[in-house]
Each structure stands twice: as structure tokens, then as C-alpha cells.
Amino acid sequence: MRGRRPASPDLKLLKAERSDRLSAPPATAEVGMPDPPSHLSPDSLEEWHRLAAVLRSAGRLSPAFASLMAIYCVTYSRWLDALKSVEDRGMVIETDLGGVKPNPAITVADRCEKALARLLDALGLTPITMSRVPSSNSDAPQDALDHLLSRRRKA
């Protein structure tokens, strides 16, 4: 996708965007704890529970995220394995001909890090996306600006 990301409806309203440019608010997914897939390794399963706790506290835990969470957790486990390989074998490894080359695990770790960053973004768990994606916490405190905006929406 090229260009800036589209702004959320709440952000457009906050910026006093023209009413004909406001899109409908996004549909909210059902809230609940998804079951972890059976194929997760112990590292992946541990990360699943950590990620579920983070999503729950952010008010974004939903069974709709199960596949995305599984991909994140498997990628996280792969990243840990690559880091362990670099730690065990070093930054460079010896070739069959006696030369040295960069450890291929560095490339794997780098690709996993990029994928993890994209997945965290998709789950709404980066600082920028956390400010954009509304939380489904109904008991979240409402500040004066939220109160003012809710009055404006009703008018």
C-alpha cells in the first residue's frame, strides 16, 4: 500500500474532518479468549499466553485474531531459534572449503523481526496503532475530550 495509512473515523472526527469524508466505524469483533492451536511449540505456546494477556489488557482479545496470533507465535519461536543459533555458532561460520561466511541464522532472525513488527502492527500493539485502534474496554475511563466528542456526535 502506498501513501499514508487511512486515518480512523475517531481521528477524522477529532480533526473536525468534513462529515461527508467520515467513514463508518469499523465493525467490532466478538471479545473472548481463543484456544491456542495444538501445533504450537512450548516457546510458541508461552508467547501465545503472553500475547493473549497483552491483548486482553488492551481490550482487543478476540477469537478473530487466533490465526494471526498463531502466525506471530510461530514466527517468534523461529526468531528465538535463530538468535540461539547465532549465539552458539557466532556471527560467521566456517565453510566446507575453509573460508568464512555470515551465519544464515542472521538472515532468518532479520526476516522474523520484520515479520513480527508487521504482525504487532496488524494486532494493534505498536505505539502508533494503539493510539489509532479503539479499545473494546467498556469500563475504560472517559476523559473530558471523549465526553465532548460524544456530545458532538449526538448533535
Low-confidence spans = none
Please bin the fraction of helical residues: 40-55%
What Rg, in angstroms, do the CA atoms define?
A: 21 Å
Average pLDDT over all residues? 80
Output the number of helix runs: 6
SS-derived structural category = mainly alpha
Strand order of the largest sheet: 1-2
What does this entry look like structurally?
The protein has 6 helices and 2 strands, in the order H-H-H-E-E-H-H-H. By secondary structure, it is mainly alpha-helical. It has a domain at 31-132. A two-stranded antiparallel ribbon has the order 1-2. A hairpin with a 5-residue loop joins strand 1 and strand 2. Helix 3 (66-89) runs antiparallel to helix 4. The mean pLDDT is 80.
How are the elements arranged and paired?
Blueprint: H1 9-14, H2 42-57, H3 66-89, E1 92-94, E2 100-102, H4 104-122, H5 127-132, H6 144-154
Antiparallel strand pairs: 1-2
Helix pairs in contact: 2-3, 3-4
